[in-house]
Amino acid sequence: MIFHVLGPLTVHFGSSERGYRSGREARILGAFLIQAGQPVTTDDLVDLLWAEAPPATARQQVQNCASTVDRLLRRHGHPLLRRIANGYQLDAPDDLLDMLAFERDLRAARISLARSDPTEAVARLRAALGYWRGDVLAGTALGHLEPVAVRLRELRLEALESYFGCEVQLGQAASVLSELAAATRTYPMRERLVSHLMRALAQTGRVGDALELFGRTRQSLVELYGIEPSRLLRTALADVLRQNDLGVVMH
Question: What does the pLDDT read at residue 251?
């Protein structure tokens, strides 16, 4: 059994797959999964399902849904859900939950980066990003769990930025340029992404495009936020200008 929360909620049973896109059991299972290893109170689950207007039977209905989830897990040999004071806790190893596997590989990538090993970091980052199949619990209302999803989305963006940065550092700008440009269009104010794209454009002989990108980004930052580009972007600009002066390919 493998659980997927980095996209629509899906459970793989061997060679078969079942999606959970609606219903109370789906929302409760999703809540357990994205808070794996942490306590989830019954009150939290009531709030997730009914927000400000829970019925008189809300707590009993939550217990019934949790029991259904528990039976599903036990049926497939995984008694992962346990009762704790005031609620529940789901304990899952990394290899059973894509979110935990993503975070594991991201931690390993950070260690590789700290050791100045971009080649190993690229491999780990590719593995980490490969777990994402869409937005967190896509199609499932998250309610008060939205901050958990926000944290995961930010981690994904950080992983994406690190991945592109390593590829450009390794001289592989041409192989990731299209994907990097698409990511920058989606997140045009992520200055780290923009800096990577500037260097990638320069590395592939498109210095003029790199300078134009800096200008557009600077204009947007000033108009939208009243700020100048960060040191990150200014350093990328200096690198591009230095390459242009030297007339060499930047790696």
Answer: 36
CA quadruple 220, 225, 231, 236: dihedral, nearest 10: -10
Which of 127, 142, 199, 192 has its CA nearest to residue 168?
Answer: 199
Q: What CATH number belongs to 2-94? A: 1.10.10.10
Q: How many residues does the chain have?
A: 251
The single-letter DSSP state of residue 7 is: S
Residue ranges, comma separated, of all CATH 1.25.40.10 domains in the chain are 172-251
**CA separation for the pair 169, 195 (Å, rounded):** 12
Q: HEC string of 170-184?
A: CCCHHHHHHHHHHHH
For the stretch 29-82, pLDDT in tens is 999 999 999 999 999 999 999 987 899 999 999 999 999 888 877 776 666 889
Identify the CA nearest to 36 among candidates 127, 118, 120, 101: 101
Q: What is the CATH number of domain 172-251?
A: 1.25.40.10
Question: Helix or strand or coil: residue 143?
Answer: helix
Please report the pLDDT score of residue 250 as a whole number: 39
What amino acid occupies position 243?
A: Q
Rounded Cα distance between 172 and 166, Å, is 9
Domain with CATH 1.10.10.10 in the chain: 2-94
Alpha-carbon distance of 196 to 220, in angstroms, equals 18
Question: Residue type at 50?
Answer: W
Structure-token match 């390919």, residue found: 249
**DSSP-assigned beta bridge partners for residue 168:** none
Helix locations, the chain, DSSP H: 24-34, 42-50, 58-75, 98-114, 118-129, 146-169, 173-186, 191-203, 207-225, 231-246
